[in-house]
Amino acid sequence: MLDTTIDALRDLLGDELVRTDADLLATRRHDYWAASHLREWRGEPMGEPGCVVRPTAPEQVQELLRYASRQRIAVMPFGLGSGVCGGVLPNDDVVLLDLSTMTRTRRIDEHDLLATFDAGKNGLEAEEEVAARGLTIGHWPQSIAVSSVGGWVSTRASGQFSTAYGNIEDLVYSIEAVLPNGDLVHLGTAPRAAAGPDLRHVVMGAEGTMGVVTGVTFSLRRQPEVRRCTAFAAPDMPTGIEAQRRIIGADWRPPVMRLYDHSEVRRNFPDHVVDTSGALLMVHEGPAVRVEAEVGDVTRIATASGLTPMDASVTEEWLTKRNHVPTWSDFFEMGAVVDTIEISAPWSRIDAVYDAVLASLGEVPGIVNASAHSSHVYRSGINLYFSFAVLAEPEEMEARYFECWHRTMEATAANGGGIAHHHGSGRLRVPYLHHDLGAAGIDLLRTLKRAVDPAGIMNPGNLIPPA
After folding, report:
1. pTM greater than the 0.85 cutoff
2. In sequence order, what are the beta bridge partners of 212?
């Protein structure tokens, strides 16, 4: 980045907001995408932003975007860096807008059950603050301790308790955002509206390509009165999936419903279920009378569907360990490249997706694991979370990684599934978005981008397929 540009930004925003120190630039070269970490681990040259701007208020974001739009300078928003699809990959022509310095809790309203935070607020800190008042956001991604509330919105995130509480789009009441031209918008003013299209969705899931989320208001819940866990052994994935379909069809909504195939059972719960082919774990919470009724009827449905009750301690163990994961470099050092890929499909197609993806992954040279579990359940379908591990020499790891992703995306689409459930698109899924959106949908996305960001400054290369 030209020194004159950095000087102009410092004149506009102040020296303390515009940073070029090497240590900070080095930590803002990418997010938590496995491919970026692999390249770094291999010692490959990596780009870094020309400078980092660290605002503390929306007005400073407005000033930056007005200037960047006039000068056609690329701006890349950054929350806490927990994204796993390559949404952050700057070069020295980019201003990295680091929102981790915007951390205020603006308001918690116990009467209307609303809480408003700056976009850079740490998700776990936000949850702990409302929990101190007997409330909950109800959003529990695995990354909750290392992700921001604005990042949740920008990637259309989902949490582990989504089957009852919903995904991020179900929890957001309103969004404050700065458009690429510097205008500040407040999207959402009431519990529900019919004032035209829901403009919150212009920025929700846009991954920084349509503007910058600067504030989020959530609609809260009271903390549940009781919580109970159940677990069931499943003879195979189709039987476990069918049991979940029947449970949801009976209008029960256990917040957590997780079905693990045989490979994942052996890997994750060896002390509990070494002999079972699959395991369905559920958490039930809410008013005591409802939880009692739910557990009783869910147990009846599960056993009638061919499942066998297990010791609920396996679910309790999952609750205590669910967010503990090794780092990417731990696997690289063992000669393996790994990742997880989340997709979804209607009930009628999910078995075919599961079979096709595992069969295709099984053809990758060096594959040592291809498995799946479900973790988000809906009236009309279910998600699958595929995991893969490939042994390869360091110089072959990246090619094997992208081959696994390609096979999973293509097999999912060919069998009627959606190629992205909740991690967003980033740069990783751009070549596959046509499967979900179609040619006309891609054109509509580009048209929206041109209308909202005519200068093309917002996170170029991310999400939007090139023409």
Report:
1. yes
2. 178
